[in-house]
């Protein structure tokens, strides 16, 4: 039982980490908490379901959803956030704007797909495998492996590629990066695309795990992922991964030993306790001004 719940928690945690990475990427570049990210996650899950229902195949359907959701992330920035930056608006204006966008996306999903809960097919279900005497579903293993690979790819992009170097330069000092010939707007665009794409993958994986989608699914998942990002140190990629795993494991064990009604609260209790001791998060950098 313990091993099964631990694996359940790690599996959920890796998916939360994928969502949390979107928060960290945008915050690292713009010092902005993008509260529309949870609805972007729900958007990706709904369109994955739409493309799967068109008999395109699971992988092509998710790939199309990833591209479309990445484009949505870019549109959010270009239509709402970039004009605010050009006017040098206060950070609170952008923060409120992302909250408004979140509700707009959620309501558009209700209009387009309905407000009821819809069935999402289980992904790559080939039964169970025995690991140290515990029966673990192949779906869980698949979600864990996919999340691990994607997080590794994101880490590689940010740490070892030219665009990743540009992102880190913009994160440290936008004006200096611009003077060095870096197109700051293109870097921000790529960041929003990357965040939207990772949210779409996470939405597809979680929907396949729970076998359902609904318009408001992004609220709690987004809050847990935000908690994971803050817990690890928002703006720090590996901190988001660690925070996601902690939130996932705590949720899994809370549901088992305290009851399902407490599973959401435990993650936030841990977050509050950590922030009382380390306000910048476990791996956060001192001097980061949080919005």
TrEMBL record:
<dbReference type="GO" id="GO:0015192">
    <property type="term" value="F:L-phenylalanine transmembrane transporter activity"/>
</dbReference>
<keyword id="KW-1003">Cell membrane</keyword>
<feature type="transmembrane region" description="Helical">
    <location>
        <begin position="12"/>
        <end position="33"/>
    </location>
</feature>
<feature type="transmembrane region" description="Helical">
    <location>
        <begin position="265"/>
        <end position="283"/>
    </location>
</feature>
<dbReference type="GO" id="GO:0005304">
    <property type="term" value="F:L-valine transmembrane transporter activity"/>
</dbReference>
<keyword id="KW-0812">Transmembrane</keyword>
<keyword id="KW-0813">Transport</keyword>
<dbReference type="GO" id="GO:0005886">
    <property type="term" value="C:plasma membrane"/>
</dbReference>
<feature type="transmembrane region" description="Helical">
    <location>
        <begin position="135"/>
        <end position="158"/>
    </location>
</feature>
<dbReference type="GO" id="GO:0015188">
    <property type="term" value="F:L-isoleucine transmembrane transporter activity"/>
</dbReference>
<dbReference type="Pfam" id="PF02653">
    <property type="entry name" value="BPD_transp_2"/>
</dbReference>
<feature type="transmembrane region" description="Helical">
    <location>
        <begin position="92"/>
        <end position="115"/>
    </location>
</feature>
<dbReference type="GO" id="GO:0042941">
    <property type="term" value="P:D-alanine transmembrane transport"/>
</dbReference>
<dbReference type="GO" id="GO:0015808">
    <property type="term" value="P:L-alanine transport"/>
</dbReference>
<feature type="transmembrane region" description="Helical">
    <location>
        <begin position="187"/>
        <end position="206"/>
    </location>
</feature>
<keyword id="KW-0472">Membrane</keyword>
<feature type="transmembrane region" description="Helical">
    <location>
        <begin position="45"/>
        <end position="72"/>
    </location>
</feature>
<comment type="similarity">
    <text>Belongs to the binding-protein-dependent transport system permease family. LivHM subfamily.</text>
</comment>
<keyword id="KW-0029">Amino-acid transport</keyword>
<keyword id="KW-1133">Transmembrane helix</keyword>
<dbReference type="GO" id="GO:0015190">
    <property type="term" value="F:L-leucine transmembrane transporter activity"/>
</dbReference>
<dbReference type="InterPro" id="IPR052157">
    <property type="entry name" value="BCAA_transport_permease"/>
</dbReference>
<keyword id="KW-0997">Cell inner membrane</keyword>
<dbReference type="GO" id="GO:1903806">
    <property type="term" value="P:L-isoleucine import across plasma membrane"/>
</dbReference>
<dbReference type="InterPro" id="IPR001851">
    <property type="entry name" value="ABC_transp_permease"/>
</dbReference>
<protein>
    <submittedName>
        <fullName>ABC transporter permease</fullName>
    </submittedName>
</protein>
